[in-house]
Amino acid sequence: MLFTNFLVALGSVATAVSMAQDLNDRSRAFRFVPRKLDDPSTAKTNGEYELQQDHWVKASTLKVGDKVSVVNLTGCSAVFLWNSQNIPSAFHIFCGKDEKSDMTKGVQNLGDSSSAVHPVSASIAAGSMASYDILKAAILQEFKNVKFDEPDIYSTATLKNGEAYRFDVVAGKKNVTRRTMSRTDTQQQQPQPGRKNPPSPQNSPPRQNSPPRKNSPPRQNSSPQPGRKNSPRRQNSQ
Question: Helix (H, G, I), strand (E, B), or coil: what is residue 146?
């Protein structure tokens, strides 16, 4: 009898664990996923992974020796989440109101992936300490035990006209190098739904000149009305 009760209790525990796991899986499947961050990059540019605005690459895509660069930074952030083999998942996070949601999407994707890409440490370069704090908090929501390197807070005040920052790493070596580069404008402003955007100056139709205004005919003096005495012309006062 006692053994039977033990088996029943054990079965209840197993059922509870299974239900908890199922709820966890469901929460991962249906949790909020921002739409802005692009799909991971899978192809190299100029022999390396160059991450423009909203682009990222997962550690599982890389092998030791691959070069990864977060480029064109003038306020945005470069985030490198290193796994146990010092292979990074790298992100170019656009600065502004979507920083938290974009970083959240990135780390949730890693959390839903193989444990081989789960980070053990993080390196963040940002244009302000406020951005750094936002990104760090988003990472810790998914990976509680990540160790953070000293923040790299850069200043755009030292950039020359037309310059931007880039942050370079090599997979397998945990080292981030900051450099300047000539800025390339590859990002286009996205139209806002429900709002008409003004046409670009190049595509605007030429403005039509209005036709010349016709001169009005000269005003005629009023003729005397029959049956009505016209008042005498007023004499100038002396």
Answer: coil
Confidence (pTM): 0.66
List CB contacts of 142: < 8 A, sequence separation 6 or more. Answer: 104, 107, 108, 110, 111
- Cβ atoms of residues 128 and 93 within 8 Å: no
Q: How far is CA 146 from CA 31, 93, 140, 152, in A?
A: 22, 19, 7, 17
5 pLDDT band, cuts 50/70/90, is: low
Nearest to 53 by CA among 34, 88, 77: 77
Q: How far is CA 225 from CA 121, 180, 228, 232, in A?
A: 102, 90, 6, 14
Mean pLDDT computed over 189-204: 36
Rounded to whole angstroms, how far apart are CA atoms 236 and 238? Answer: 6
Q: Is the pLDDT of residue 22 over 90?
A: no
Two tokens, residue 152: 């790299």
Three-state DSSP class for residue 122: strand
